[in-house]
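Q: For a teaching handout, I want to show students what a protein-ligand complex looks like in token form. Below are the inputs, and the small molecule is pyridoxal-5'-phosphate. Please produce the holo structure.
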Amino acid sequence: MTQDSNVQYSFGTQAIHAGAPIDPHTGAVIEPISLSTTFAQSQPSVPIGAFEYSRSSNPNRDNFETAVAALEKAKYGLALASGSAVTSLIIQSLPIGSHIVSGGDVYGGTHRYFTQVAHTHGVTASFVGNLANDLKAAIKENTKLVWLETPSNPTLTVTDISKVSQILKDHEASTGNKIILVVDNTFLSPYISNPLSHGADVVAHSVTKYINGHSDVVMGVLATNDDKLHEKFRFLQNAIGSIPSPFDSWLAHRGLKTLHLRVRQAATSAQKIAEYLSQHHSVSRVNYPGLKTHANHDVVVKQHRDSLGGGMISFRINGGAEAAAAFTSSTKLFTLAESLGGIESLVEVPAVMTHGGIPKAERESNGVFDDLVRISVGIEETDDLLRDIEQALEKSAK
Ligand SMILES: *Cc1c(COP(=O)(O)O)cnc(C)c1O
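A: Here is the structure, written as tokens, with pyridoxal-5'-phosphate included.
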């Protein structure tokens, strides 16, 4: 960034300028896509520039990592092939025999990795519904990591990161055992929340969602202030090879430059949609962190920028699975599809789509009933989105 290093620029300015140097050879204001896999050296082991081989580092990936680090108020960023690659890299960095504690309703793929893959490299996992209350009792002698997702998916429960971080600090003070706290910040994006500022050691993202924001790149990123952790992750990534392509890094960086505008618009619309749904006679419950009636709204006020609730809403529709199916098939602007965080609005039924793999009893104990509908609010005009929901509720609800 060609900025005055004495000035602390605000989020939107950093989103545009961090990791975005003017090309010194051509003056291009947008970085070229660097496809070269290898980089020339002047003498053996003395590279001409900052790069040697594109698996280890690449100009487009570097610039994207610089930008994400700035937005997450982190010293380091590390971009990976997907959000799932971030999860697997972090868990693979733990010694054999480690135990991790995870929040209860984490992303399905994260749950799958913890329960069906992690044990193959000697890591076991326990799940705790409410980390801020029940973490202490779940910690074992070999616990090395806590995985926290806030807001949770799809019921949008918000967890107090600083409370969880304090439990781990107290544990370290009394036992000498350091447990690292990882927060998956995919649902809020760095615009709404910066988990490192609340005590997390590592923040993880599926870039596929808000950071890229245009539903055309699968990618992941993590950020940290810890020198040793960063070194370990970078070493491991180079060894494993789970890297994003230069083109995807370039696209994700382009998407990131409008993150603040997109998230503000999505959150503003989502707030109005959640309020509309809350008073609708066909809706029995609305989960949205921006509502003052949300169970964890006090945490939202201190942990989210401007108390924004984000772009994700879930709600229970009267009429069971049938009404949920009818609603999600009747919307015209909200496309029936999995995923979230893009410019276009999406709608889905978690019980049979994103969370279909979880047994019914376990699913329902987490609030994922057959009549639960999840929406990802895009950046279309608010009034058009409201009208679309209104007409779909009329067609479907009992
Ligand atoms: C999508 C998602 C992931 C996984 O990311 P991919 O890029 O799809 O591999 C992890 N966590 C959350 C919260 C997600 O929404």
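A: Two things your students might notice: The mean pLDDT is 96. The pocket of pyridoxal-5'-phosphate is lined by residues 82-84, 107, 109-110, 149, 153, 184, 186-187, 206, 208-209, 218, 220 (CB under 6 Å).
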